[in-house]
Specification:
This is CsoR family transcriptional regulator. By secondary structure, this protein is mainly alpha-helical. It has 3 helices and 2 strands. It has a single domain, classed as Up-down Bundle (Methane Monooxygenase Hydroxylase, Chain G, domain 1).
């Protein structure tokens, strides 16, 4: 029985492209929280656009920093939802299929998320 791997690509904020494969367990990224995550990201993007306008309009730096803090918090909370969903679905599946690479990827992702 041959082992098939699905390769896919992730692009980080800094433009770094990460390409990796998942083994034969049929890993996919369809999760229960996708709609909630997309809604939260849309709100954060809208909020960030309004902060950009604040800077363009020369608004007080303290106000801008407070609003940036709100966006940062919203993004961190969105990341927590993604992490929880990932653990509940992908990691449970990976453990069931002995996929140690998925667990190592999670460890790296958590490390970067926590910085």
């Amino acid at each position: 029985m041959s082992e098939t791997k699905e390769t896919h690509v992730h692009v980080r904020e800094d433009g770094t492209v990460i390409e990796h494969s998942h083994g034969p367990h049929g890993h996919h990224h369809s999760h229960e929280q996708t709609k909630a995550v997309l809604n939260r990201l849309s709100r954060a993007i809208g909020h960030l656009e309004s902060i950009k306008r604040m800077v363009e309009d020369g608004r007080d730096c303290s106000e801008v920093l407070i609003q940036l803090s709100a966006v940062k918090s919203a993004i961190n909370n969105t990341g927590k939802i993604i992490l929880q969903d990932h653990i509940e679905h992908c990691i449970v599946d990976a453990v069931e299929h002995g996929d140690r690479d998925a667990i190592k990827e999670l460890e790296r992702a958590i490390d970067r998320f926590m910085k």
